[in-house]
Model the fold of this input.
Amino acid sequence: MNAADPIRRVSVVSTGRVQIRPDHEASNWRPMAWWLLASRRWTGPRPINAYVIEHRDGLVLFDSGQDRASVTDPGYFPGGLTGALYGRLARFEIGPQETLSAGLDRLGYAAGDVKTAVLSHLHQDHIGGLAELSDADIVVSQAEWDTLSSPLPEMRGLMRRHIDLPGLRWHRIKTAPTNDAGLAPFQSCHDLFGDGSLVLLPTPGHTPGSMSLLVRQPGLPPLMMVGDLTYDAHLLEAGHVPGVGSPRRLREATAMVNKMRQQYPGLVILPAHDPGAADRLARVTLATARLCQPHDIHSEGSQMEIDTLESVQSGGATQWIRVRGADATNPVLLLIQQGPGLPMISEARRFERVLGLEQSFTVVYWDQRGCGRSLRRREDRVGISRERLVDDTVSLLDLLRDRFGAKTYVAGFSFGATLGAYAAAQRPDLVAALVATGMDIDGAAAGTCAYDFALAAARQRGSRRAIRQLEAIGPPPHLTTKQFTTRVRWATNFGGVTSNETYASLVRGLLASLVRSPDYSAADLFRTVRGISATQAALLPELASMDLAAALPRIDVPVVLVQGRHDQVAPGTAAQRYADLLQAPDKQLVWFESSAHTPHLEESGKFRDQLLRVRDTQLAKT
Ligand SMILES: [Zn+2]
Ligand SMILES: [Zn+2]
Done:
């Protein structure tokens, strides 16, 4: 992706399958009335696609699929002759998991995330998701809307009671003349966000107001979502038109799109019911990850060869990674965020600003299960355990090895370091080296250290509020979120976590990073904040009883323990004990004398040098 590119991701959802008549797919010049009544054959099953575009200004849909109620509710279609004709025109198969909402959910979105839904036209298999889109602006052409009022709309496939639903915000648009040469031969358009990335073009024929959507991304072939202008991109390319609509206007619109294909030889045609469309789209999307594009988020002249936001599947949950790097041949570095429950993708810019790792590594920023962007579905909130998170780490490392063909460097922070250690112990074949910073090693010692530190500091400073709250929770273990938060808040406020930061300033920093990051919606932000305590609640008992000396006496990869001298929540004594007993091919405990729990932020230059030294040492061996 490109910084100037407002489009982050394009995906497709199919709301079930539809079969149509062969004459419908490609016109044989027999009149529609004839084949509709006489035909006894159906085509193979075809998708009912809604295209999903993640744009900087919000999630956009092109079409919304077929309503599952059409196969479960006998009253969905009109009765009598009209109803019989609907039954002869198409037959649908839609499973419980094939609704628009379920499809968006699988992509990691919610129906409520959709800001704009564009309808190519108003036929039943394009408007079926409207009831699920009450938060969206619905865009349709004025010409298409007007057909609702011409005679016998239901005979023309328009069921107004399923279209004109109460509460929907309709925008009836007209295309306007344009002199954008990139749109030739089209001479009028509607630029959805005014940035040229999503342009609606009039392609009447199937219905009088049918529109297509052209999606343009720098450095990539444009996508043309054509609705029902064709049912098969190859038929369109060969100049064939379908059997429903005005043959003359269908031929005109088809010729226009084919002219555009001459201008863009790679133009990707994405019809609503083309069985090949999803594959075609997947191939373009895959190319995105490999293309070299200039990138200028950070400093002028910086060139990012890789910059992708991707979802990965692990243990039934969708998780998100952002991958950034200046040179695809650099080694891969996975950053595992401290926790429990803190996001990492939102920190990408800050990490790059203070550490500047993306010139030397391909850096993978990962929002773990139950946190940040990976927290879009209710299921993602349950089943959080240390074991699960370790499994997720291993699957991600596996995926990175397959993708980049080499072991990954792992830098983990606090509990993220613990996860990295477990993963490295389980699968040393996947890890080039582990840099564990402020690692949670000994839960009991950590709790006592933090509590004693906070209480002593409170007494020394005469902070009556802190003393009162700390005495109220008593000494550890602190197994509820409230107890844990109280301990962490005061240990933080007295400098035990990050020098010169208070608990409130850390929380403000987290919120600011979420707000500024292009990768989170407002809904993500609220989910993230709520998710932190849910994840904490799930992990606190395991954290409190953590004992790495017993659990992981041996790790078969080079290990560097990075330890802040003033760390009061992961004490140096525990790090020293663990460093002494750990069996590893190469081990090192590096003290950061001016740091507490976050040496990577407090002494970032030294931390960066440490990572580069680890990299150079390992590269020298190979
Ligand atoms: Zn249609
Ligand atoms: Zn259709």
Remarks:
- The domain at 7-289 is CATH 3.60.15.10 (Metallo-beta-lactamase; Chain A).
